[in-house]
Design a protein that fits this description.
This is Tc1-like transposase DDE domain-containing protein. InterPro entries: Tc1-like_DDE_dom. By secondary structure, the protein is of the alpha+beta class. It has a single domain, classed as 2-Layer Sandwich (Nucleotidyltransferase, domain 5), CATH 3.30.420. Helix content is 15%, strand content 26%. It is built from one helix and four strands; from the N terminus they run βββαβ. Strands 3-2-1-4 form a four-stranded mixed beta sheet, with helices on one face. Strand 2 and strand 3 form a beta hairpin. The longest helix is centred in the last third of the chain and has 14 residues.
Length: 95
């Protein structure tokens, strides 16, 4: 059994991380920069429940091609027996 999903878009941080926690115990926040550019990437990942083996890779976008590439990598890493993939209902998972 394998859990699979994608995370993103992930962008490089252009500001230093917050120094820690505030006196009141809340996380210190900074302004977020929203932009559309070529520096974003998506992280695809899978976790094999039985032994905790993970598989990850990055792709320039979230689409059917990236999802199929993840499924191919899962199949290559799990050559024996049937594979059950647990995922959400994102449209690229069905195309």
């Amino acid at each position: 059994m394998i859990c699979a999903d994608e995370l993103g878009p992930v962008t490089p941080r252009t500001f230093p991380p917050a120094p820690g926690w505030s006196v009141g115990g809340h996380r210190i926040k900074d302004r977020l920069e929203y932009s559309r550019g070529t520096d974003k990437t998506w992280v695809y990942g899978a976790l094999r429940i039985r032994d905790g083996t993970e598989l990850t890779f990055c792709a320039p976008s979230r689409n059917s091609d990236g999802w199929i590439q993840l499924l191919m990598r899962i199949a290559t890493a799990n050559r024996r027996g049937p594979i059950v993939v647990i995922t959400d209902n994102l449209s690229s998972h069905f195309s």
